[in-house]
Write a structure and sequence with these properties.
alpha/beta; two-stranded antiparallel ribbon; 10 strands; 44% helix; TIM Barrel; single chain
Length: 405
């Protein structure tokens, strides 16, 4: 029997574009239509309409917090023009969470941008920070009395990697130089947003909120423990997992470290070149581990190792995404339970873990992979939009209720 701290936060997450539906002012929507992709978000899970019903389910499952994101493109569909209707909508969303005693964790940017922002270069624009801060100020002034946790930017490394290094996601701008510009802009934006948010709370005589980013982290593990593989794993961990965080820590602009963890990366170099050190992975499936439906390995030990690596920053850590896409619901529960064991082990090793948020509350639109991957604690029938609570969700619910595994 494992016990978690009495004040531990338990919940699940969603992101606006992936569940709301009909986000027609977003760059992703425009990109889907332009490419005529078969993976269009469309009505998604219709969470925009059914949010109260969905929060009822979260409450029924004994969650005490819930992570959402706000769709900037809804709030500011045209540059400088804010939609009062959408501001009122998100206010109702936050109040619905509070009415159900679900602590709101609000993400301000989760991969998507307004079309007008994308057309002027998005995060490469020299005025990107100014535009984003104007939106942040509008949202935080409105929601500050009810929101104790803010996440400014979700997975900056993932956004940059897929959009500017691989060039798969919009704007499909494959450039190392542009990727560096975007990362620098995102880091600077968070630092300024951090101080703006704190300033709004101070002005309004409110208790300061906890502010962070969410950093996607991979456990970089040498597949075979050669010196070459160990060196590469060390540098990938340092650059991909820690560098962005360390920039913000240096500027005292993190109140906690938000992390998202799904799977490991098995490091196996084929040579001594720069590209080998940055990207070579094992192609031989030496470990033969269980996998999710997208082929990602399941490796709970990786979460423990990552949590331990964050101990040196002396900041609380909040797991804001951890989950599995699978059609095997027993595997989903096994995944949750085994990762919670790693979390508990990290806590007993002295890591200050604040909470665990599963990805995701609902089946949703998984970006360029469409609707096939099923991450939800709650199944969504995309023909009828009926919600069905999975058995894994019931088992997780018992842990949320008792704090025991």
């Amino acid at each position: 029997m494992m016990e978690f701290p009495k004040d531990f936060l338990w919940g699940a997450a969603t992101s606006a574009y992936q569940v709301e539906g009909d986000n027609s002012f977003s760059d992703w929507w425009e990109w889907e239509k332009r490419l005529n992709t078969k993976h269009s978000s469309g009505r998604a899970a219709r969470h925009y309409e059914f949010f109260a019903q969905d929060f009822d389910l979260a409450k029924e499952l004994n969650h005490n917090c819930h992570r959402i994101s706000i769709e900037w493109a809804r709030i500011e569909p045209e540059e400088g023009k804010f939609s009062q209707r959408e501001l009122d909508h998100y206010k109702q969303v936050i109040l619905a969470l509070k009415e159900r005693s679900l602590i709101p964790i609000v993400t301000l940017h989760h991969f998507t941008n307004p079309i007008w922002f994308a057309k002027i270069g998005a995060w490469r624009n020299k005025d990107a920070v100014k535009f984003f801060l104007r939106y942040v100020e509008k949202i935080v002034e409105l929601l500050s009395p009810d929101v104790p946790f803010w996440v400014t930017i979700n997975e900056p490394m993932v956004y940059t990697y897929f959009s500017y290094l691989l060039g798969i996601w919009p704007p499909q701008d494959k450039s190392l130089l542009h990727a560096k510009q975007v990362i620098d802009n995102l880091a600077g934006t968070h630092i300024k947003a951090y101080h703006l948010i704190r300033g709004i709370y101070k002005k309004n005589n409110l208790e300061f909120p906890k502010i962070s980013i969410t950093q996607n982290m991979q456990a970089f593990v040498p597949c075979i423990p050669t010196l070459r593989n160990k060196i590469a794993a060390y540098f990938r961990h340092k650059y991909y997992n820690l560098d962005f965080i360390e920039r913000l820590v240096a500027k005292h602009a993190l109140d906690f470290i938000g992390i998202n963890y799904y799977s490991p990366s098995w490091v196996e170099l084929e040579g001594w070149g720069v590209s080998n050190f940055t990207s070579d992975v094992c192609k031989k499936n030496h470990r033969n581990l269980r996998k999710n439906s997208m082929g990602w390995d399941i490796y709970p030990q990786g979460l423990y190792d990552l949590l331990l690596s964050l101990k040196k920053y002396n900041l609380p850590v909040f797991i804001l995404e951890n989950g599995i896409c699978t059609d095997n619901d027993q595997l989903r529960w096994d995944y949750i339970a085994e990762h919670l064991e790693s979390v508990n082990k990290a806590i007993t090793s002295g890591v200050k873990v604040m909470g665990y948020v599963y990805w995701s509350l609902l089946d949703n639109y998984e970006w360029d992979k469409g609707f096939a991957p099923r991450f939800g604690l709650v199944e969504v029938d995309y023909d009828t939009y009926k919600r069905t609570v999975r058995e894994s969700a019931r088992k997780f619910s018992a842990v949320c209720k008792t704090g025991k595994l």
